[in-house]
Amino acid sequence: MIWMWLVLQALTLLGVLNYWRHLPVDRQEAAPEGAVVLLSVRDDWDGGAALIARLKAQTAHFRLVIATSGECAAAEALAAREGGWVQIVRAGVASDEGQKVHKLRAALRALREGDRYLLFIDADIEPPARLVGRLLFPLMRGKADIVTGYRLLLPEADWRAALVGAVEMQLATLPRAASATMPWGGAMALSRETAERLDLDAALAGRLSDDMAIGLAGWRAKLRLRPVRDLLVASPLEGRGALGFGVRQYRHILTNSAGMWLIACVVVGCQALGWVWALGWGGWSAVVVGYAAAAGRALVRRRIIAGILEPGQVRAVRRSLWWDVLAPFAVCWTHMGMQLAAAGSRRISWGGFDYWVKGGKVVRMERKK
């Protein structure tokens, strides 16, 4: 049994080393004409001063389309200040699909003739200046049809946020092959030609998860999905609701693809149950093997984030690294717990609404009181 445990821990360490080894050194960017960034915001959005400042600092040019449900005062004020750089799209309130999806579909219908490249971002990210250019580069080179980054959570000084951040880091630093990549809606790009090929409006209709819908449609159409490994995009996470955030992510996966959820459960379950054996019956040698591999993963992840994130962001991410060093078993058990909790209901609370989802489609929705 100790040899199986040793092999399992070696594989987890090799996986993180593989990610580090394939980080691009020459991080080339592209700045074509006709790029448009689609941003969905709630009507109580505060204007995202930090986000807008980061978008203005991008090395590639683009037009910003902000999709709202109705009257968002901050978005309207931004559009008034910025003139032609910002376009507002008012989508109204959905009745049979996710509100974010509803707004993005309205934004797609409002595209202009010269809009050739579509980029999707989330309102809570801290994008690096290279974000737009790096997402566009594989599209311009003809190396991909859909390009994506991935989130890297910045936990606040709260044990729950740091623990969930450690779980998410397990996913963020997995080896990524184009044939096994799903896009992340917080930093994703595709050409307008690809969107029309997918009939993106129809692919999103009735869905709750925008990125899962686009990713599954891309798989069915045999498109080339490409991860940009150096785009681990910072996304702050509060302690309150952190565990619920993790469960919600897996509920999105389960309600869209039960097979994908099951594979994830098997992979995480092997590690989680392995720790049960190591701590209960494996003896000191098993515990040492587990902790040695965890320390190795943390060191490599530290090198990864140091080469990608800003110094302040690195300091926040290190809160999660400590979990994997001091209590790697807790990270695995929490990860597995989130996966299993996701199977307890088809209801997903998100953005002020409760949704009941089946087969990726919204079958019922209610505004939260």
Please, what is the average pLDDT? 96
Which second-level CATH architecture of the domain at 29-259 and 343-367 applies?
Answer: Alpha-Beta Complex
Question: How many distinct beta strands?
Answer: 10
> What is the helix tally?
13
Task: Describe the overall structure.
The protein has helices at about 1-20, 50-55, 75-80, 100-110, 130-140, 160-170, 190-200, 200-205, 210-220, 240-255, 260-305, 310-325, 330-340, and strands spanning about 35-40, 65-70, 85-90, 115-120, 145-155, 185-190, 225-235, 345-350, 355-360, 360-365. It has 13 helices and 10 strands. The longest helix is centred in the last third of the chain and has 49 residues, at about 260-305. It starts with a helix and ends with a strand. The chain is globular and about 65 Å long. Helix 6 (about 160-170) runs parallel beside helix 10 (about 240-255) and helix 11 runs antiparallel to helix 13. The chain has a domain at about 30-260 and about 345-365: Spore Coat Polysaccharide Biosynthesis Protein SpsA, Chain A (Alpha-Beta Complex), CATH 3.90.550. It is α/β, with parallel strands linked by helices and about 375 residues long.
Keywords:
52% helix; 369 residues; single chain; alpha/beta; 3-stranded antiparallel β-sheet
Summarize the helices and strands and which ones pair or pack.
Layout: H1 2-21, E1 35-40, H2 49-56, E2 63-68, H3 73-82, E3 86-90, H4 99-109, E4 117-121, H5 131-140, E5 146-155, H6 159-172, E6 187-191, H7 192-198, H8 200-204, H9 210-220, E7 225-237, H10 242-256, H11 258-306, H12 311-326, H13 328-342, E8 347-350, E9 353-358, E10 361-367
Parallel strand pairs: 1-2, 1-4, 2-3, 5-7
Antiparallel strand pairs: 4-6, 5-6, 8-9, 9-10
